[in-house]
Amino acid sequence: MTDIRVGVAADAERFLRTDTVVWFQEELSAPVETQLLGVPADQRFAAELDAPTDPTTYPGIYGVYPLELAVPGDRLVPCAGLTWVGVHPDHRRRGVLSAMLRHHFEQVRDTPGTAVSALHASEPAIYGRYGYGLASLELPITLSRGTTLTAPGLDEAAGAITTQLVSVRDAGTPERMHACHRAVADMGSVVGAASYYERLCLSVPEWLRDKEPWRVLFARRDGRDVGFAMLRRDQKWEDARPSGSMDVPLLVGDPATRLALVRRLVDFDLVSSVRLRTGYAEDPVLTWVGGPRSTSTVSTYDCLWIRLVDLPAALAARAWSAPCDVVVEVVDTYAPWNAGRWRIRADASGAATAERTDADADLLLPVEALGAAYVGGGNLVGRVRAGLVTEARPGAAAELWRAMRTDVAPAASMMF
């Protein structure tokens, strides 16, 4: 059996070259540390084998973005954003990915204050077996120029908002994005560290070519930033008529702010379509335009996958919607310290505890079911009906689900 050792990647260039091989990307001219911006040096990890390997690449790599996750109760909790995950093509099917994820869970467990890991899955079939649960859905929405958005109850508040268009190259843009996002993050979304917004604002020549630099449309009320949209336009002409498109990967703000921003986005000159990448299941935009069929395109994708690494700490970190007293038997192969029976009790104040118990289990569930439900999505009753959660006490799944669910489905998070 191959001996796999995982630790901090000592060679940044080797780390980056491995990523380029795994993702078969164009090599960039920017310095190595510029390309790795946002992933701290001590959060870049690599797998080594006991057998001889190519000294210019690692058999496997992964990185961690320091993030905050917006959880029920209007709280931001520390979250390890798993990213840059890859196994070199020469070393697949040897247990490298499993070794790296075990190492990741141990690192998270041993990091004070951090109990949760999250990711966006390149291939959704992979991460469920490692305990990640699908916690939210993403519904990219494409709107036509001049789309009418009807929200009479928000018109006055939206009308008090002004907008300011800046370039990501302008001084202070990353700092403004970070501060604004932390202040108004929707439940279920993630907020990066300051360096992550510096990464978002990178203008690497190979990424630009014939494209404009990314721009940010800030929403302002009473002289302060209350939201923003990150955007880029692609110029196009058909029969001498402007037919450009706009890509909006990030839209941040409360409903009135979103309304003001979207109304501005669908009124840009020379742009005929606007794609909002981070629409979500209960996005008010869908209501404002009259439903999904009033848009050009609505597709549904898996968005954020959440993994509870320190189960009792993670459950205590969020607010709960209703009282409950349920014993769960958790199956967790890759973080075995979570496995076994837990008594989950939430009270009317919204506080909850999870404590070890020998009592008979009311529910038998894999740890990914709790990750899926963590920010108010991932209906546990639906999972019982689907045969993915086993109910020993009738009504136990509904009791736990009512305590974990939220009034509104979680928002889609930005990509990382």
UniProtKB/TrEMBL annotation:
Residues where acetyl-CoA binds: V85, G86, V87, R93, R94, G95, V96, L97, S98, S122, E123
Active site: Y127 (proton donor), F416 (proton acceptor)
Domain Enhanced intracellular survival protein: 311-410
Catalytic EC class: transferase
Keyword field contains Nucleotide-binding: no
Highest taxon in the source lineage: Bacteria
Coiled-coil boundaries: none
EC number(s) reported in the record: 2.3.1.-
UniProt cross-references to InterPro entries, sorted A to Z: Acetyltransferase_Eis, Acyl_CoA_acyltransferase, Eis_dom, NAcTrfase_Eis, SCP2_sterol-bd_dom_sf
Molecular functions (GO terms): acyltransferase activity
UniProt keyword annotation of ATP-binding present: no
Family membership: Belongs to the acetyltransferase Eis family.
UniProt cross-references to PANTHER family, sorted A to Z: N-ACETYLTRANSFERASE EIS
Subunit description: Homohexamer; trimer of dimers.
Protein name according to UniProt: GNAT family N-acetyltransferase
Organism of this sequence: Nocardioides caricicola
Classification of source organism: Bacteria, Bacillati, Actinomycetota, Actinomycetes, Propionibacteriales
